[in-house]
């Protein structure tokens, strides 16, 4: 393919991101069969074999892909097409519903960042618990060289981004609007910082405003881009749950952080944990263990405090329980209380004394104070 043909294909794909919508399987199927240049020409001359042709043609007035490319460049962005060296090939799993191109703002390489990436999503109206967990996840994953992907929304999304940025790790914000549109407006500074250290990504051309239906397809895009999705907090009706469902459909790992059963913001995530294949995680180590290559990032074993008495055999443990904490008692008294013969009590007392669990006082024995852990 000549350079002129590549430029024509790039311009056509850029135009089609404005003519169609992310997730339009019919448009995706036609582009795969005919090519983007032929599809755009057929839309313009009214010969495209699609029932959606009138809708596509309604967006032709004012269509100017070169102006869109220039607008993206003005904010430090670029337009990526399938086949580019920076294109994440895992997006092919979306098939005909995949993006025709991606508008990307920032200096990092999208393909490189997405190779080791995890999506962290959750409630916008997050509780202090959710913010704390999401921030720790973002920081912990960043320290482990995992890229955190989220949607830059209020609540859990922003906390995950900020957690990654706090440890100097890049993060990716995937938007349901143009990369030049600060949404939500209160996160304009956060999006600028994400673009400086990571990437802001969208399947929608510059100037596109967010819409409810665009968030649904954006969530599928986030799920496809990464190895797995972690849901931190989510009510029963939550966009975060749609991201988890999309991840499951695409064969990605689905993880959830359990929340208090008394919290409405954890109702959806606790329900999600009942679904087959969903794994409960509590920190970045748990997440890395799930999404990394088998055996590479095993989380440390979780257990309570270990006490010296935990390894005692049953008889010795009974003898220890028969020894008072304050007032020493004799061997016969210990034998009577434990129901263990006196000669066996003596052997047990020797072991307990060697472990620092008891002390001799006169003719009696008592437990060593503070001989716990």
Descriptive overview:
By secondary structure, the protein is α/β, with parallel strands linked by helices. The protein folds into 3 domains: 1-63, no CATH class; 90-291, 3-Layer(aba) Sandwich (Rossmann fold), CATH 3.40.50; 308-367, Orthogonal Bundle (Arc Repressor Mutant, subunit A). Helix content is 44%, strand content 12%. It has 16 helices and 11 strands. The chain has helices at residues 3-19, 25-34, 36-45, 53-57, 65-74, 110-115, 128-143, 156-166, 188-197, 212-225, 239-249, 267-272, 284-291, 314-322, 331-338, 342-354; strands at residues 77-80, 102-105, 117-121, 147-150, 171-175, 199-202, 228-231, 253-256, 279-280, 358-361, 364-367. The strands form 2 sheets. A 9-stranded mixed β-sheet has the order 1-2-6-5-4-3-7-8-9, with helices on both faces. The chain has a two-stranded antiparallel sheet with strand order 10-11. The longest helix has 17 residues, at 3-19. The chain is elongated and about 105 Å long. The N and C termini lie far apart (71 Å). The model has no long low-confidence stretch (mean pLDDT 91). Belongs to the DprA/Smf family. This is DNA protecting protein DprA. InterPro entries: DprA, DrpA_SLOG. Residues 79-291 form the Smf/DprA SLOG domain. Pfam families: DNA_processg_A.
